[in-house]
Structures are given as structure tokens and as C-alpha cells.
């Protein structure tokens, strides 16, 4: 009788240990799954970075055009300024 109780106790202990180990493994797998990023999210970030880079290049290009026009206007003499003024009024 004592032997049956000891065997039952051992089986119960083994089952409890297995359940705890299983819970730890499941917890680890679920936690690992949560930490991974989706490829959709990374592709959205990549496309935003590309759009941002494209806009930066475009702004730099427009800035260089503006600087060129500023130099052109600064170098105008009085007659050229008057012609430019009439062109602007005509438009």
C-alpha cells in the first residue's frame, strides 16, 4: 500500500514537472514570436526612407536652382531689370 502511494506521488511529481517545463517552453515560443517584426512593417519603413531620400534630393535640386536664379538676378543691369519687370507685368 505504501508502495502504491509512493508510485502515485512520483507520477504526480513527474506530471507537475512536465507541465512546468511545457509552460516554460510555450512561454518562450510565444515571447519569441512577439519580438519578431513582420516583413510588411519593415518594407513600409524602407519605402518611407526611400521617399524621404527622394524628397531631400528634390529639395536640394530646387535650392540649387533658386541659388542660380538669385545670382542671375543680382548680375542684372538696369536695362535688364526693366525688361524683366515688363515681362512680369505682361504675364
**Total helical segments:** 3
Order of helices and strands: HHH
> Could you estimate the helical fraction of the residues in percent?
over 70%
Which geometry do the CA atoms define?
A: rod-shaped
Indicate the mean pLDDT.
81
Strand content bin: under 5%
Q: Alpha-carbon distance between the termini?
A: 111 Å
Counting helices, strands and paired strands, the structural category is mainly alpha
How would you summarize what this structure contains?
This protein is mainly α and 91 residues long. It has helices at 2-35, 39-74, 78-90.
Attribute tags:
3 helices; mainly alpha; single chain; 91 residues; rod-shaped; 0% strand
Walk me through the structure.
The N and C termini lie far apart (111 Å). The protein is built from 3 helices and no strands. The longest helix has 36 residues, at 39-74. The protein is rod-shaped. 91% of the residues lie in helices and 0% in strands. With 91 residues, it is mainly α.
Amino acid at each position: 500500500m505504501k508502495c502504491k502511494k509512493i508510485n502515485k506521488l512520483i507520477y504526480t511529481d513527474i506530471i507537475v514537472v512536465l507541465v512546468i517545463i511545457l509552460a516554460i517552453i510555450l512561454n518562450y515560443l510565444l515571447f519569441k514570436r512577439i519580438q519578431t517584426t513582420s516583413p510588411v512593417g519593415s518594407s513600409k519603413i524602407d519605402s518611407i526612407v526611400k521617399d524621404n531620400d527622394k524628397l531631400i534630393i528634390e529639395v536640394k535640386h530646387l535650392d540649387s536652382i533658386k541659388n542660380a536664379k538669385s545670382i542671375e538676378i543680382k548680375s542684372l543691369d538696369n536695362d535688364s531689370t526693366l525688361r524683366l519687370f515688363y515681362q512680369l507685368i505682361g504675364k
